[in-house]
Amino acid sequence: MIETCELNMDDKQIQTLEQVKQFVESSQTIEFKGINTQEKYRWIEEVLRKFKYQWLKKNGKGIIRRYIEKVTGYSRSQAARLVERYQESGRLKVTEYQRHRFPQKYTVAEVALLAQTDELHGWLSGPATKRILEREFEVYGHAQFENISGISVAQIYNLRHSKRYRVKRYIHTKPVISRIGERVRPEPHGNPG
Question: If phi over 0 gives left and psi between -120 and 50 gives alpha, with beta otherwise, what is residue 192?
Fold first, then answer.
């Protein structure tokens, strides 16, 4: 039977490697309730420091890794990676993931200009719209069209499908209330039928 107890990052009752081994081999489990990754990493650091992981023999290192796996719920490979990272730097930090994003070539204002141009000219084809944008800058000298005048036809179509464009373009219509198909009690006003 598996027993579950909560651990509020307080495992002071486990002081020796033998106690860790007994805990790992027991069926008792410890769950971190409501604790984030950063706190788990901090606890792993404390355990590795407390038991002087780098000075342990191979058998002792395995016991400590299994202890970390059991308490945190991490897989064997994840626990090994964290221990290795700790040995390299002496600390465990949660790495922030930065998704690569290409810089936006056209600003929100320029997308709004495209939407306004489309609305004024009746949503022409891409090449016609491109020509209008070029003329706005080159012939009429409107400075706000400088960057968007060099847009490609394909990019015009891409921007027309973007959320930034749709927000500027569409004006939400109000629903029309139609009484067709509405079931109402007839009022014949004294006439038959």
Answer: beta
pLDDT at 6: 45
* Residues 53, 180: Cα–Cα separation, whole Å: 79
Amino acid at 150: G
Helices (H) then strands (E): counts for the chain:
8, 2
This prediction's pTM: 0.47
DSSP type of residue 26? S
What local confidence, expressed as pLDDT, does residue 193 receive?
65
68, 44 Cβ separation under 8 angstroms: yes
CA distance 171 to 167: 8
Please state, in angstroms and rounded to a whole number, the distance separating the CA atoms of residues 43 and 82.
12
How far, in Å, CA of 36 to CA of 189, rounded?
73
List the structure tokens of 159: 């921007």
Q: How many residues does the chain have?
A: 193
pLDDT above 70 covers a percentage of the chain that reads 88
Binned at pLDDT 50, 70 and 90, residue 10 comes out as: low
| DSSP 8-state code for residue 28 | -
pLDDT top residue among 94 and 34: 94
Which sequence spans correspond to the domains of the chain?
4-89, 108-169
